[in-house]
Amino acid sequence: MSNEVVxxxxxxxxxxxxxxxxxxxxxxxxxSEVVAxxxxxxxxxxxxxxxxxxxxxxxxxxxxxxxxxxxxGTQPTRAxxxxxxxxxxxxxxxxxxxxxxxxxDNIILxxxxxxxxxxxxxxxxxxxLLKMVGLQQKAQSFPKRLSGGEQQRVAICRALAMxxxxxxxxxxxxxxxxxxxxxxxxxxxxxxxxxxTMLLVTHEMMxxxxxxxxxxxxxxxxxxxxxPARQVLEAPRTERARSFLRRVLSPMAHxxxxxxxxGGDET
Length: 267
Prior knowledge:
Layout: E1 5-16, E2 19-30, E3 34-38, H1 45-52, E4 60-65, E5 68-71, H2 78-85, E6 88-91, H3 103-114, H4 119-132, H5 148-160, E7 166-170, H6 178-193, E8 197-201, H7 205-211, E9 214-219, E10 222-228, H8 229-234, H9 239-248
Parallel strand pairs: 3-8, 3-9, 6-7, 7-8
Antiparallel strand pairs: 1-2, 1-4, 4-5, 9-10
Helix pairs in contact: 3-4, 3-5, 5-6
């Protein structure tokens, strides 16, 4: 991890109507850093991560992403958003694959249309990505023929095909059956090991502890605690963080293996 800051969130506030989702949130993310965002349902975790690539507008403060500055209450131009989105990959809870396109065509569409990459070059790149996740044999399959875990791995490949400098994951395993979670987390862990800068909203506490450099606990309209992953999850300093972690620990927990998930994040 370098000292170069690639995401700088400065006093950001987000409202939905009169409802304040979070207020005056600040966070720096360094190049090659993996930041896991956890917290109770409804704390605004998903909304926060979507503000970073302006899928959600925000009301106050500023966010600088890879040199692009977003200012609360203003709308970036279409060209500015295209430049930003060419550098930032996003993987959602729901896989968002185009059902009428094959796996291969799902992956090559954006590189061809946005980056004007030749079809053969885009295809070669896509097949290499599919090979990385063990799905090269599914290239001509349609999404409905894939398991949830396979669809999510394809969605990650689709994001990586744009060669992003930053990856955002919004609860990437929350829609998966428990037995499929591991295959997706394993690939995300490989990306982390390869130096990809990532922000990850997750309810997988063990994964956050093992993979993240930094853990952020969001609660009560802001950041309750942030710091090195093991310190935050093993010895939180604030009572709000401690109360959250007590709730996501099994009553029978005696060690890390008994960490369990909290619910999804509506916002």
